[in-house]
Amino acid sequence: MPAPSTNPRLTHVGETRPWTLDGARELYAMPFNDLLFRAQTVHRANFDPNRVQLSKLLSIKTGGCPEDCGYCNQSAHHATGLKASKLMEVERVIAEARKAKEGGATRYCMGAAWRSPKPRDMDMVVAMVQGVKALGLETCMTLGMLTPAQAERLADAGLDYYNHNIDTSERFYQEIVTTRRFEDRLETLGHVRQAGIKVCSGGILGMGETADDRIDMLVTLANLPVPPESVPLNLLIPMPGTKLADAAPVDPIEFVRSVALARILMPRSHVRLSAGRTAMTVEMQALCFFAGANSIFVGDTLLTAANPGDDQDSALLRRLGLTPVAPEAA
Length: 330
Ligand code: SF4
Prior knowledge:
Its EC number is 2.8.1.6. Homodimer. Its cofactor is [4Fe-4S] cluster; [2Fe-2S] cluster. This protein is about 40% helix and about 15% strand. The radius of gyration is 19 Å and the shape is globular. The N terminus is likely disordered. Iron/sulfur cluster binds next to loops.
């Protein structure tokens, strides 16, 4: 039986950046109970441990994407049978956002399957941000790579968050995506931060990466000039027709370890359980909350993938005694 840790580095709540890969590896490899206790301690020092932020995600432009992300059924490189759609009308987006607010969401995330927005798209996207914000919701968009000028324009429209995942480690990235580079992702994150928009960036687990890739990804995020305010962690949902259709499932305990590591490395970020909750048991989700996850996507669809419905999530939160955060504290 491993002895209780006497290493002060492993029991200290606050940490200073930059994180080293070795330090993060040491945390990830701790006995599970020690790791979860450490993560929960960090969590309690920074958040109300029984509150969860609820976000709602809408696909405003589906499919036909020129990028070749190996996990994505919206890529035009994959024969997934998904029908591509045009950019959604602004009024419809706002109507959907109103419904999400009535359902308890505090943040509305809008995603378009683009490499980057075209100049002609920007007026509509800006109108969406303004319309959704006017409902009293926080706004988030994920539109692909942005130029500094596009980021500025979105910031001027009042966009609160921009999502741009780094997906995995720099080493493994090229195995998953070949149409852009890891540095391109970091560059867009820099433009978003520079424009004064909050950053949402995380990754996907279960793409065939090693534990070291997961650790490396989290260290990269934690060591950004300012860590992302939101860190979505997705469990891969293998999509038929994609390159990763037959990917082996990730060990649930490894997933929980990654959540705990994210919480420790980024103490003040919202760590979100994103895609893949339909493949998680209630007990696994409960462990993720204990490990420091404090945000979920609600609603029965995420872009194109299934998500537990509102009834299931309300029941889950009730069973665990978790309550949604109020909009102004999200
Ligand atoms: S993840 Fe985004 S950028 Fe990549 S193929 Fe899918 S929609 Fe396109």
